[in-house]
Amino acid sequence: MNKNNLELAVRLRHELHAHPELSNYEIWTKQRLMDFLKEHTHLELVDRGRWFYAVYRSVIGRRNIAFRADFDALPMEEMLDLPYASQIPGVSHKCGHDGHSAALCAFALELEQNGCDNNIFFLFQHAEETGDGAAECAVFIGENEIEEIFAWHNMSGSQENAVYVIDGTAHYASKGMTIHMEGVPAHASEPEKGINPAFAFAKVIDAVPELISSSDYKGQVLCTVVHVDIGGKSFGLSASKGDLRLTLRGRYEEELKQLQEKIEELAAAEAGRYGLQLHFAYQDEFPETANDKESSDKIRRVCREKGIPLLELSEPFRGSEDFGHYTKLTKGAYTYVGNGENYPHLHSYAFDFNDNIIETAVELLKGLAET
Predict the structure, then answer these.
(1) Where do the Peptidase M20 dimerisation domain residues begin and end (predicted)?
(2) CA distances (Å), 108 to each of 10, 53, 66, 357, in order?
(3) Which of 121, 145, 234, 291 is most buried, most CB within 10 Å of its CB?
């Protein structure tokens, strides 16, 4: 990799780190990335509002291949004493999306300077953390007749600068489920005159272990109770309404839907038994991210050709990734570059993206651009 391009990428990464923005509010970040590409390349830029993409059009133009980077941050305080520490209170890049975007920019510089036989699309996406981004950007696939798409993520607790790959499911599907029940208030001394949803919620919570029984599914499903909010703080009032919030996960999206249906049926039965009004709401919905074996094999081949250490993942990540919205529409693969075996974990206060892995990521993407 060109030394100057690497230095530019590191400086850009530090700029992005100092100006983090939450999902769907990445105004400064998006503009800075566009300005960087305008300054250092002649690529075509297409502004789509909250997201954008750049295009390298080859004279040969054999295939249309896309590469995605995310650029949102997290609602976490910056606790590290860095010269480029976050300047935004309560917001910081603790997942490394600043590094993903900087590396994609570096890849764009390298590709424009060295040329390529394929048309390459550089997709810069907002709101990965909430699952909104890829759902909105997925139209990009059909509009540009994208034949294959790749993305990568930094990975802690793994060999530094090694590439990790897996076929099939790479990330579980997940969604946040809110069950709202509402009854009738009453004085706490006369609870029989009201309708309290606490007992119905208790039945749903108690049934969770049976609902996720492994014998009912070919892959793992999970249901995590994340929040229970019933009634108020007055000891004189019997609770009359509340919310139960659950996170549902599944190795296979179809089985997550089965779990959701089971919980809805149980909640409806319990609400009916107690005479409660019932409402469901969903948010933070992520599809299963499934890698196409042909695309994963290309990652393996590029690593062999470039001498990049390659390791196979035996299990997918339970944590979700919105990249699955793209692989529903075209073939592709999601891969990982190791930060180091003892590197701070993602979403922790001690985490900062490892600049040492940018070159490995760029070399991997350059190789995939020629496949």
Answers:
(1) 170-274
(2) 14, 11, 12, 17
(3) 291
Please check the confidence at residue 61 and state whether its pLDDT lies above 90. Answer: no
- CA dihedral sign, ordered 317, 311, 343, 99: negative
Q: Which residues are annotated as a binding site for Mn(2+)?
A: 95, 97, 129, 153, 347
Please give the CATH number for the structural domain made up of 173-286: 3.30.70.360
In angstroms, the CA 266 to CA 278 distance is: 11
* Backbone φ, ψ for residue 89 (5° rounding): -55, 130
Please state which architecture CATH assigns to domain 3-170+289-369: 3-Layer(aba) Sandwich (3.40)
pLDDT for res 161? 98
Amino acid at site 184: V
Task: Say if residues 94 and 351 touch (Cβ distance below 8 Å).
Answer: yes
CA angle 202, 207, 212 (to 5 degrees): 140
The binding site consists of 95, 97, 129, 153, 347
Q: Do domains 3-170+289-369 and 173-286 have the same CATH topology?
A: no
Residue 297 has a pLDDT of 98
Cα–Cα dist 114/106, whole Å: 12
